[in-house]
């Protein structure tokens, strides 16, 4: 027997080495840490389909990763000399079809029997999924279909040809282990039920992984487009348009077809594989690495849901980067909503084949186009495709999260109401750049330069930047949001109501707004802090944007400790190293300058870099918002009672929450602020006096410098609020419309920016003033009369007086002089 086993092992080893002369694999999850395996317990691997080639690949990857070997015998009486089994057993002759069925193999039966009879001994069952190639390309020939790894099962001859064609693009995914003890625990007296439970769990698992990796079956694009025109909603829109515009129905139908053809993606696996190789080269050229965190969220969501990826939008690179990362991690790239401006010659067709579907910027006045687009989105969701769109609408020019636009979210909600058999889950994604490629053009646009339209020539100019380094990129996946849970929160009886393609319930805007706030706040809760934005945050808080090197390093370390003391969210990531490492890195990127000095080198921001660094500072501003708000209350007060701090901070919080998409609810914010007061006193930024009042540190001390600098992280936001309040008090109640107040506030902020040398372009961003005015109306501070004029009561004076606590004397006097208020 030993001689037989030895010869068999030698033959398998030889076959494995021959196979891997050709096969190349991309593997995920193959580490002890990722799998969280207990080294004291035996491990058994399970593959979906019986196949010699799959076994050989499994053995090779287990050896490469240093995992418990598949050749180890399991502690099963009369069991096999290897520790793996196949879920599906092949039925048929050597060259007969690919029929597999879940017939319990001897290894499977013996393993379950062992689990039932030995309740004190456990076996870790690790499911392993293997894909020869990735997804089918159904728009190609029959031969191409034959040689693709799809949802169907290949016969032996077909498998041989598939390995020849796709063996160099093999994907292997190790998944979290199942506990044999936990599965058999409730069936100690019924081995048959235990076998059925384990088989059901494994079948379900493999099905979910296969859907996540391959995605739903792709339909022929022309069939999809024609199907859209035949839907009841589009037919009705064609009839209405023909009657309204007095056009022949055939011409309107042709127009609808052109709309559908303009919109629809044409995802091609050939293009995706080509782009993967091109992008791998590109990322290695312009980035120092891509860091991915919490990818398991996307994997789990994709297994049984229609997934909507909702990343922040900072760069055109976002589209490519997220699809690349998903594909490289074993997930089907999503269909991406792209602006019609990107449908350029050459570029447009490539993006369309990479999964982009194109949409016009506005189609409110074109009901036919709106209907076609809505039906296209509905098809995507009901068929289980993953979709990606940017809730901000456009790229952020300031580095902050923009106010979400309701359009795509509303379409998604309405589609789900029509047909909610396939759950929809939103996966927030934070994409953090150390150096955004469009940074310089953003500065120009914020200073009034006209936005350049996308064009092939513009892309050619951008290509010149590919010789530069843009640092590292981070992709952090945030906590998922189940759409059904949001609807339950807003309108718990939504499942009992009937909806058609045109019905918009009264509670729809509230549901969309709630969803938008959750998406935006969870994107921010997944922020990746990096050396650039830490350096920017500290230096931009100084008067002259310059600081002694040693002091700068100490302050960055101390503020990082502040973030660790009360983590904003578990999905936030901090950079490796310390302040010294971060400064050296920032200097190597050319974003700060060093001025040698005998008493110690000075680190400074100069020129356009000083303004550009506000972009990176704004990426993480929300993390410091609450401690900075508390510190700012001591700008003009030596001490305050804890109750007063709580009152002032909770009063300001709704406005900061709306602007920075902070995650805490109004019910919990008092507790959070109280906790921050304790942390600030524990770290010496505030002091608790014997009488219980909270005081700032002594002037001239290192602690006071830290407190004052911390307050400046948020002070400009609070100054903007005071500008608006000052203008309201100048004109009085019932004298200005919201638009007039917005304009006056913007002009005054722009003047203040010039007078005090403020380098933050968002300081006079009119959309921020618009949002603040809208929130004052929402919170009842302002109301509108029948003429559209803003009215307020005496309470506004109290709010304005409290707001004055955070202003320096110089800025307070400047605002008073301009608004002609008494000191």
From TrEMBL:
Location(s), subcellular: Cell membrane
Keyword field: Acyltransferase, Cell membrane, Lipid biosynthesis, Lipid metabolism, Membrane, Phospholipid biosynthesis, Phospholipid metabolism, Transferase
Pfam family, one: Acyltransferase
GO CC aspect terms: plasma membrane
Domain of life where this protein originates: Bacteria
Keyword Transcription regulation applies: no
Annotated signal sequence range: none
Catalytic activity: sn-glycerol 3-phosphate + an acyl-CoA = a 1-acyl-sn-glycero-3-phosphate + CoA
An individual GO BP term: fatty acid metabolic process
Predominant location category: membrane
Pathway assigned in UniProt: Phospholipid metabolism; CDP-diacylglycerol biosynthesis; CDP-diacylglycerol from sn-glycerol 3-phosphate: step 1/3; Lipid metabolism
Domain Phospholipid/glycerol acyltransferase: 307-434
Protein family per UniProt: Belongs to the GPAT/DAPAT family.
Domain notes: The HXXXXD motif is essential for acyltransferase activity and may constitute the binding site for the phosphate moiety of the glycerol-3-phosphate.
Protein name (database record): Glycerol-3-phosphate acyltransferase
Source species: Marinobacter oulmenensis
Gene from which this protein is expressed: plsB
